[in-house]
Amino acid sequence: MRRIFKYGGLLLSLIMMLSCNKNEIEIQLVPEPTFLSATGGQYRISSVASIYLGSDDADLKMAADFFKDRLSVSAGVNLNLEVNSANAKGIHLTLGSLDFSDSPDAYELIVTGKSVNITGNSSRAVFYGLQTLLQLLPPEIYGDEELLKAKQLLIPCVEIRDEPRYSWRGMHLDVGRHIFPLEFIKKYIDLIAMHKMNVFHWHLTEDQGWRIEIKKYPLLTEIGSVRKTAEGDTYGGFYTQEQIKDVVEYARTRFVDVMPEIELPGHSVAALAGYPELSCTGGPFEVRKVWGVAADVYCAGKEETFEFLENVLSEVVDLFPFEYFHIGGDECPKIRWEDCPDCQKRINDEGLADEHELQSWFIRRIETFLQTKNRRLVGWDEILEGGLAPEATVMSWRGVAGGIQAARESHDVIMSPTSHCYFDFYQGDPANEPKAIGGFLTMEKVYSFEPTPEALSTEEAKHILGAQGNVWTEYISTAQQAEYMAVPRMSALAEVVWTPADLRDYELFLYRMKAHYLRLDAMDVNYRIPGPVVSANSFVFLKEFTLELHKALDGAKIFFSADGSDPVESGQEYIEPLVFTSDTHIKAIVVMPSGHTSSVIDIILDQQDIITGLDLVRQEGVSYSLFEGNFKSVYDFKDVKASSYGAISVPGFPDELPDGAYGLVENGYIQIERAGIYRFFTFSDDGSVLSVRGQEVVNNDGLHGGKEASGEIALGQGWHPFELRYFQAGGGSILELEYSGPNIEKQSIQKENLASYASAMKMI
User: Fold this and answer.
1) What is the mean pLDDT of residues 131-159?
2) Do domains 10-162 and 538-607 have the same CATH topology?
3) Would you say residue 16 has pLDDT above 60?
4) Does pTM top 0.85 for this prediction?
């Protein structure tokens, strides 16, 4: 697309306001449009305004009805709806062929003092133009009439030409682990539509629950939808087919396609609980009540399995008109197949090499069936194992490598890697966040995502359909928490998949989010807002310490307490930097004008005296001890006998490490050349803890992915003993130690400033 104008920098964006009747209207759109020009002036929607349709197209009327209903609910304005009017005033919605783009989702929006004109290459494109128009109105337009009150419906005069970068702009929701009310499912779809995203991926079956009514197999919901809890209670529920139809129709009116996911061949214990004969062992089974991956899966050797699945999929296909159908295909252990006579016979009869090819054969057979239903199969990237089904679309979640491989094999790809798209990961310090599955994914990192890998050629890159955010719900049990985890990371991803890469700027995005947060407030969304911004959560000082707090959102306020009490109930507003002269426990929180609050953060101030350094005759290296076993904390092996010992030059990993899980302890001395406050950092996967001079300085313990933690200590000139403890529970192995201090930028500790623990024997 030809871009005649684009934002030229932060200054231009900040001053891009229109003065209308001495009122300023800021243009803050999310996602950022491809082309925007402010032309000056305003258009006011009056109570007698009309919407004029360029044709009697049913979908065009559906888009108009959506906008009409929103204004009726929020502003009490009931717009007239007319077809083929020559009236020059009012709001005009037209289908046409735009000269700047052949994308079916491209639209043009022109607002003058007399009219609003939206032209789209399709009715859906016009709907996206109306979404932009809503964002040009006061944020309260997303609420009810009580919120908007006496505000005028003023729209700044603009010219916008816009189109999405990718055709697939999706959001996923897992209802297998925890099920959510229909009202929330519809609200989630509203959020998808608001962000100009177009796919709702509904994950309906899991080991822990079957959530969709199948009339031919009632035990799927009678048994498979309910599990026992750890407390001895039951948890469950499902959606009837009528409820499913209602949701699909609701999404259709918002131009959102709903893609169902029916997991196979793995993640199927809930189904096997009702129909154990479909397994390799015959059961019995109960709906799984713990998370993780189950060994029991559908038997690939029994014809009954495929008769069952084809009957199930037939009923599901009838409920979901979208051409794409997700079959899961991930995390399918092969252990049952290895011992199953039926599966082994299938391998021999089909001339397959192994169980991986058996899984591929399984997926290909399901794909062939779905093709008879005019559906296209989508699966997680494990469907690449053993060979990819001919027409399958790959959803790449274990990084982007699977997507690259699939694209090079001329298969379509939806990028959804854990690194940027898993919204069940922590968004901040776990100490201040609701419990999550692990990982760490900030809104900024989501925004930095580039769905098309540089490794692909131009032709291969055409197979990247787009990207999708995933909300898995092992640790998300309520609709409010689901909103908190999804938003505003959904807003960031929406811009990634809509806006051209060269127009994206994170600082400008944060600026535009100011108005977007107000829209979310009007929708009563429990979005996450960033807490008070501070360089660290713990500080050491000698005589006094000045604490500065910052807020990321204009219009918000910071409240704090200095005695560990609730910062809202008993605290005071932060106005200027605070000075402390003794140990202090500070709690701080950001409060929006709406009353919406961030999580409380804790800041610990610790007054210390300089610890005098030691003299020693240096012996090079750092000593280590290895401990074999499964650990969940660095202290689990405190009283365990080491399996081996050795020395390395700098903190990190020895050359020889046990397979799988293990513990590691490293001891040595660090040389401090200038007395002062030193901050130490560990970045690890899994847990790590650093102690210096017998004091725990950095606590980064626990099961987690790559995560950094830090802490401070006051050290004098000389040598200081340290202990670095680490454990690995399986998966990625990361262990890094860095420090900063007076005249020292954050850096790794050089081996010249390290001494072996054996040096203690040679102290002077």
Assistant:
1) 89
2) no
3) no
4) yes
